[in-house]
Amino acid sequence: MPSRATACCGSPVISRPPNQTRPEVGVVSPEMSRKNVVLPAPLGPMIERSSPRRTATSTRSTAMRLPKARVSASVRSRGASGIGADSTGPSGVSRSPRRVRRAPVCYRPREHGCAAAGAPVSLELPPPPRPWPTQDGMPTTRGLNFYVADPNLEFVCSTVMEPEVLARARPLLVEMGAVAGDELDALAAAADRHPPTLRAYDERGRRVDEIVFHPAYRAMEQLAFERFGLAAMSHRDGVLGWPGRVPHVVKYALSYLFAQSEFGLLCPVNMTDSTARMLTRFGDEALRGRYLPRLTATALEDLWQGTQWMTEKTGGSDVGALTTLARRDADGAWRLWGDKWFASNANADVALTLARPEGAPPGTRGLGLFLVPRHLPDGTKNAWTINRLKDKLGSRSMATGEVTYAGAVAYVVGDVGRGFAQMMEMVNGSRLSNAMRAAGIMRRSLLEAVFHARGRAAFGGALFDKPLMRWTLLEMLLDVEAAASVVLNAAVMFDAWDAGAEAAGRLLRIVTPLAKGWITARARAVAGEAMNVRGGNGYVEEWVNARLLRDAYLGAIWEGSTTVVALDVQRAIVKDGALAPLAAFIGTRLDGVRERHAKPVTDVVRAVLADVERRAAAWTTQPPDTRELEARPVAETLYHALATALLLDEGQTLRPQRQDHHKLLVAALYARRWLVPAPPGVPAFSPSALESLERLVDWRPIGADALAAEAPVRD
Predict the structure, then answer these.
(1) pLDDT above 80 for 37
(2) Alpha carbon distance 545, 535 (integer Å)
(3) Does residue 114 register a pLDDT over 70?
(4) What is the separation, in whole angstroms, between the first and last Cα of the chain?
(5) What is the DSSP code (8-state) at residue 131?
(6) Is residue 520 part of a domain?
(7) Average of pLDDT values for 660-681?
């Protein structure tokens, strides 16, 4: 990998709060496969208790020992953070119980290498720090390894990745988890506090439209584009030492971890990735030759970032109403005139944009797709200006602006009459990325909530043990595990489609808007609940909750609001016949469930699917307004049916491995919560379900009796 410029001067100084809790690193087993899953063990408890009904009386302070390379599954299984974790910082140096100020972060070149397929993976995990005392009952997650701390992600990866793929991916996931839990988290907080500014003119009054970023943002770009190559790995062989190109499912797992600390930068990463994909699929040889090497570069000095701009003042989500005009000169060159109202990654070097060729019909059918470079081949600035930057609620680290084309030189991408159809392929990819980022926000929100609840004593006991707190945390856990399963399985479909499986493409056509619609909307609720769990501190910008909540609101707007995406699901069913392949996919997963106590869950999913199919069959004869009213409830129901089926499928894999009904219980509780809702005034979860929360959080085996007690029944 090319050498990397350092970013020391001006970088934020990261300090370690004195309330870091005691870590205990869990298992990272190189021999993991679909047949042999060993999960990370969680931390020792901060607030000691013998049962949820017993008052917490003391805090433990015993230091824990870490074996030389791996920690066996026999380590203590009760959790202080609530999630298995590695709390060391990047240096691996043990922390003392006093505040330690670290030097400014420096970013230097780093070599990557992947283990050969099937070869043992040796992960030299750093030694644990000395335990921090619980000072003022305000535990922090800073320093946790977000991958090692997530047994669910480790398990789901083992079900969606082939063993040799997982063997290569795991060291990268562990590395990303360490970066996301410490270095990236601090940079993201600094970049959020110091949003970019627009320098419209230089010192001589010349128009430059330069966007100035805080050094923390530039350091995050180095991590995303250069160190991990997130935008290039699907297009360039050998990124991160991978033999060939990195699969989408690995990229999404890495990005899921990255998103738990930084949401905004993943927009430029995804759009650069998507721009390269669009040129690969639709661009002519000249465009591919000029722009692909730059869009897929893994050194910042060589990289040209990409973006896609559609939204205008007049239409918003109604893309067919846009007014940007494309006019062809006598010499055959295209030039654009018009305004783009919500231009994300406004500092991009290459923009894909929709415009209406002069004389083309109205609506989306008349739109063409154009590539507009920021600079022309001779180095001069193209004729577009950035009028101002948006003062956004969330995603504040990334520049979003208002752009005017004033005769900007543009190049047609693909068929000039199929611009909207081509752009929608990019939009669907961005929607799936959006769902993944929202799922990452949900996961971080759960981590923060459980960590706080277990490290906080209130009303004479651990906050984690209070029934209503358990209810809140259990509902969050169900949403998080379901979202991770849907997103990573969709990534597998993406890989299959790229490999030529048309059936996977038809399935992805409906799964993508289902995932985007529900997960991005639900992330707002989950992030809000996490803020509520932390209380007043959660409302203070010094803690991560406010940033998570602000960012979560944007995910539901990007690439189509929740209602727009629901209507797209309906179009996929009516026009593309997408319901049949989805129902078949779900049915195959249900057919594989052999656990008798899970049969009521499979029966509920089958009944729900049959009901949706009856409703959809009637849409062709219904008035448009009546049909449209059913779009959102049907889309949400299909998402829940898909999520439940995937959780059941995972449960059928996990149960024989460890005699563990964890995933089957999660599937049953998820179905009870979303497919068979309780009557008004009746609690959604039983006392026995709340009693199981601790085992679910810690990934300790769940017995069949717990599953049998929670099986849902549909009237």
Answers:
(1) no
(2) 10
(3) no
(4) 60
(5) P
(6) no
(7) 94
Question: According to the model, what pLDDT value does residue 715 have?
Answer: 59
pLDDT over threshold 80, residue 133: no
Tell me the pLDDT tens digit for each residue of 685-699.
Answer: 999 999 999 999 999
Alpha helices (H) in 592-679, listed in sequence order? 599-618, 624-629, 631-658, 662-674
Contact 59, 19 (CB under 8 A): no
pTM above 0.85, yes or no: no
57, 461 in Cβ contact below 8 A? no
Element (H, E) at 532: helix 502-534
Q: What is the full DSSP assignment across 57-109?
A: --B--------SS---TTS----SSSS-B----TT-PPPPSS-EEPPPP----
DSSP code for 45 = P
Is 516 in a helix, a strand, or coil?
Answer: helix
Strands (E) in 161-265, as ranges, are: 197-201, 207-212
Which residue, among 100, 17, 23, 99, has the nearest Cα to 60 in the 3D structure? Answer: 23
Angle, helices 599-618/662-674, rounded to nearest 10 degrees = 40
Question: What residues have CB less than 8 Å from 521, skipping those under 6 apart?
Answer: 556, 562
* 373: phi then psi, degrees, rounded to nearest 5: -80, 150
In a domain, 147, yes or no: no
Q: Please give the pLDDT value at position 314.
A: 83
What is the band of 657 on the pLDDT scale with cuts at 50, 70, 90? Answer: confident
Tens of pLDDT, residue by residue over 482-535, are 999 999 999 999 999 999 999 999 999 999 999 999 999 999 999 999 999 999
Collect all residues with Cβ–Cβ distance below 8 Å to 264 and sequence separation of at least 6.
191, 192, 394, 395, 396, 397, 398, 551
Query: In 3-state terms, what secondary structure has residue 287?
Result: helix
pLDDT at 400: 97
Query: Would residue 451 count as lying in a domain?
Result: no
Number of domains in the chain: 2
Of 424, 450, 470, the domain-final residue: 424
The tokens describing 519, both together, are 């997960």
Residue 532 belongs to a domain? no
Task: Write the burial class of residue 478 (CB in 10 Å: 0-12 exposed, 13-18 middle, 19+ buried).
Answer: buried
Q: What is the mean pLDDT of residues 20-26?
A: 34
Q: Average the pLDDT over 27-39 and give the result.
A: 38
User: End of a domain among 384, 399, 424?
Assistant: 424
* Residue located via tokens 């335990």: 131
245 in Cβ contact with 233 (< 8 Å): yes
Which structural domain, as residue segments, surrounds residue 402? 306-424
* Residue 535 burial (C-beta neighbours within 10 Å; 0-12, 13-18, 19+): middle
CATH assignment at residue 420: 2.40.110.20
Supply the pLDDT for residue 89: 35
CA 513, CA 559: separation in Å to the nearest integer? 10
Higher model confidence: residue 616 or residue 139? Answer: 616
Residue 636 has pLDDT above 70, yes or no: yes
